[in-house]
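worker-03 picked up job from queue 'complexes'. Input manifest follows; two sequence lines, order preserved.
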Amino acid sequence: MIINSRFFNRSELMGFIALAAVLFVILPLTLDVFRLNLVAKYLTYAFVAIGLVLCWGYGGILSLGQGVFFGLGGYCMAMFLKLEASSVENTKIQSTPGIPDFMDWNQITALPFFWQPFHSLTFTILAIILVPGLFALIIGTAMFKRRVGGTYFAIITQAVAAILTILIVGQQGYTGGINGMTDLRTLKGWDIRPDHAKIILYFVEVVLLFACIGIAQFIRLTKLGRILVAMREQEDRVRFSGYSVANFKIFAFCMAAIFAAIGGAMFALNVGFMSPSFVGIVPSIEMVIYTAVGGRMSIFGAIWGAILVNFAKTSLSESFPQLWLFGLGALFIAVVLAFPNGLSGLWADYVQPRIDRLFASRKAKADWADNSVADGAPAE
Amino acid sequence: MFGDYSIGDLGSIFVMQGFAGLILFSVYVLMALGLAIIFGQMGVINMAHGEFMILGAYVTWMTSNLFQAYLPSLFSGYFFLAMILAFLASGALGMLVEWVLIRHLYKRPLDTLLATWGLSLMLQQAYRSVFGAREVGVELPQWMLGSLRVTDSIEVPINGVFVMCLTVLITIAVAYVLYMSRWGRQVRAVVQNRVMAGAVGINTEKVDRYTFGLGCGIAGVAGSAFTMIGSTGPTSGQLYIVDTFLVVVFGGAASLLGTIASAFSISQTQSTLEFFMSGSMAKVLTLLAVVGILMLRPQGLFALKVRK
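worker-03 finished. Artifact:
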């Protein structure tokens, strides 16, 4: 099944080691808890970026609705946490104790039926994977089986993002409206708010991130990954060769949705709230931009893109709020016009050859030394 | 849902809501006309289309302020000049953008989406820096205020009637330019077969630039009309962009008639539903219906039969 017998080639292995070193060792040692928590927030977008590399970079399917899946995952997690935070003791002052505060404010007196199963953590974890997965399956089947792709698909996923945002904002009583679900406190009785919990959650997230990297890399190396690339380049030929193009596209889209949902769930845990401002059109396009800046063809590049763009966003919008939008806009245009493969493309074009040359010249020197010793030996 | 109203009341409600829908329809049509040219004809996804519209709105606002300050006697007629200025400003910016940005991306339609999104962010920030973050409203001349009384229970605002007449005129003008004039024939020739059009002596680059400029210019006029019925802020354009894309896609991308028909059905559905439920649910149901129909019929309402 796996075509390439090595899981990572050398440059990927270097990328893997570098990322692992930074995320597991350097950042936790150098940053305070507040900044580390910010990194955890950025990393939730890295999950989305991995999904987009598979579905957009490899499969050629541009989805502008990743915020939908991010949001669905996030809201599933937030619903569980919110229910736990709204126990009868915590909500004594409400007119109906035991339901989330925003429901009480909106004169709802009983927990709606679709909230009931979220009392169970097992159900919640399953829902985080299955709800976005099934939703992507439905959209994907409806679109790809009819050979809708490219720009049309992008616009329709964008419309879906708009619909979900309007729905969440409009149905305040069931979803918390524009403020979202705030004041999330505990996970199975374990407080998620203090510093040590944030550090643990950070490491849980990084481990999950590497698991997702592993899955994505595995998909890339199997025949499936090759078919995705072939499909992107010459869809008709793949179809004529007897493959069901639609099924492969649906698969890539569903995987991207599930990755995004995991990111969303980690967002709810790490940041402690979930709101429609992470669901709609603008965040969905921003997610695509992180991927494009990092490099749509490279898993590690996209992760760096998510981290760096968000870092720039936080620091620049703190100090120069006016410049930030100009900078971001210019960055998109530059990425598209000047370096379509993003940071990883720049790395592969300019930095990697130098490193290779460095290694090559050392190796050549070593070879030369070996040879001279070998040549010298018989002369003695 | 209908229980509390008598038949006569319901009739009036439908007429009044229908009229409110017609104003929405006018804005949709004006926005969508430009987009239908740019997206439908050229295949460029212009996410900055809303910002071109807002530029037209700001030009109108500035013109009205200038007239108020220096030519108060001619104030009642400022709107016509403002519209022309809005068309020229947005059209010129559009041609500049085409020259700097879009012409490098004709072979990568999905990338035009990202680049123009970046452009829209920059334009929004530019508007915010120049005009301020607050929404601005245009003062309407006296003759546009008030409303026409059709029957006892039905009233229609004059500015709405004016915007609608304007929409009809512009639509006819665009249809004439695209389907009757020599230049329109060149545009359609380039769209249908770029290489062949070039071979028979059409300057395809120039046609592209003017087509893009025309689309953006119409967006500017849409913005000008938009000031008649709402206030303008730096991010107002973004509110309409998704709806407008849906209108164009729903109508069948390359068809002018389809664009108008879909703008009509979407705006009417939305404004009729709005009376019976909250505005957000009306919008959700309308968009869901559109997406649902598009999933069943991806080519849109009026599809041209093209071999690909």
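worker-03 released lock.
Residues 343-375 of chain A form one domain.
Chain A touches chain B at residues 62, 64, 142-143, 146-148, 150-152, 154-156, 158-160, 162-163, 166-167, 169-170, 281-282, 285, 288-289, 292, 322, 325-326, 328-333, 335-337, 340 (CB under 8 Å).
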